[in-house]
Design a protein that fits this description.
163 residues; alpha+beta; seven-stranded mixed sheet; 8 helices; disordered N terminus
Length: 163
């Protein structure tokens, strides 16, 4: 095989390999929404953020701290709650609930360790954060802390927070 043919074959192989990966790569610095989408355990949260038109906000520079309820946390709500909240006529209520899960700024678990705090959420109401024995946020427990995103941090919680 001549050098020219080898070069063309290599270029073709590289193109095919890259094309096969094009739809499967995660952005190099995923934002909060992209991290939640790729995790596979926040489908309900992502749907709710979309229904409330908060995707662009959570993709912006931030930084934000998001207390992210899992799909199981949403499933534990009374039957029909999620479906009702996702209706267009309930967008304001959904937005109030979702923005209660967001703090302005980047707050890491170490920032609250050993402390009791009442930070103000994006919706204007204060959360009760207790970092003295693990981390509790209102009545939810942080089950996975400090999930990094390019525009902030996610703390996974086991319950949906209600303002």
């Amino acid at each position: 095989m001549t050098f020219s043919k080898l070069l063309k074959a290599s270029a073709l192989a590289a193109t095919v390999a890259l094309a096969g990966c094009a739809g499967t790569t995660t952005p190099p610095n995923p934002d909060i929404v992209e991290v939640a989408q790729s995790a596979g355990s926040f489908d309900t949260l992502v749907a709710a953020v979309s229904a409330a038109d908060l995707v662009d906000t959570l993709k912006s520079d931030g930084p934000f701290t998001v207390f992210a309820p899992t799909d199981e946390a949403f499933a534990a709500l009374p039957v029909g709650t999620v479906e009702t909240l996702l209706k267009p006529e309930n967008k304001d209520q959904l937005t109030a609930i979702l923005t209660y899960h967001v703090l302005p700024g980047k707050v890491m678990a170490a920032d609250v360790a050993g402390k009791r705090l009442s930070p103000t959420t994006v919706n204007g109401k204060a959360l009760k954060v207790d970092g003295r024995n693990g981390v509790k946020v209102d009545n939810a427990t942080v089950v996975s802390a400090d999930v990094a995103a390019s525009n902030g941090v996610i703390h996974v919680i086991d319950k949906v927070l209600l303002p």
